[in-house]
Structure formats: C-alpha cells, structure tokens
C-alpha cells in the first residue's frame, strides 16, 4: 500500500490537531471538505407537524 492510501484509510480520531503531522492535517481538511460537499446537496429537515387543535391541560377540568 502506498503512504497516501494508508493515510486515506487511517483512523485519525484519537489524535488532536497539535499531535498531527502536516500530512494528517491535510487529510482531515480533505475529509471535511468532502463531507461538506455532500451535505450541501441535502434538503434541510422539516419540522414535525403539530396538530392544529392542541388545548392546554388544566388540572381538574374535564375534556
């Protein structure tokens, strides 16, 4: 395996940015940019529909 491919497949989650080599930081930046490109195309989640006739509960009052 090439060094580039090993870095592409490496788990970097246990490292802080200050512990990473410049190559590892560049890989993290590349992964983030790829993630953001995929997220831009997705629609925003819609808020759940609420029933129109919700009444406040009052203790002792019959419905």
Task: Please give a structural write-up.
It is a single chain. This protein has helices at residues 3-9, 22-40. The chain is elongated. The longest helix is centred in the middle third of the chain and has 19 residues, at 22-40. The model has no long low-confidence stretch (mean pLDDT 85). The chain contains 2 helices and no strands.
User: What's the main sheet like?
Assistant: none
**Based on DSSP secondary structure assignment, what is the total number of beta strands?**
0
Helix share bin = 40-55%
Query: How confident overall, as mean pLDDT?
Result: 85
> Class by helix and strand content?
mainly alpha
| First-to-last CA distance | 70 Å
Number of helices: 2
Radius of gyration: 24 Å
Classify the beta-strand content into a percent band. under 5%
**Oligomerization state:** single chain
What best-fitting shape do the alpha-carbon axes yield? elongated
H/E element sequence:
HH
List segments where confidence is low: pLDDT < 50 over at least 5 consecutive residues: none
């Amino acid at each position: 395996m090439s060094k580039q491919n090993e870095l592409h497949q490496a788990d970097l989650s246990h490292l802080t940015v200050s512990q990473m080599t410049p190559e590892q930081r560049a890989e993290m930046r590349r992964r983030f940019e790829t993630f953001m490109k995929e997220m831009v195309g997705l629609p925003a989640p819609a808020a759940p529909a609420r029933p129109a006739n919700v009444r406040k509960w009052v203790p002792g009052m019959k419905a």
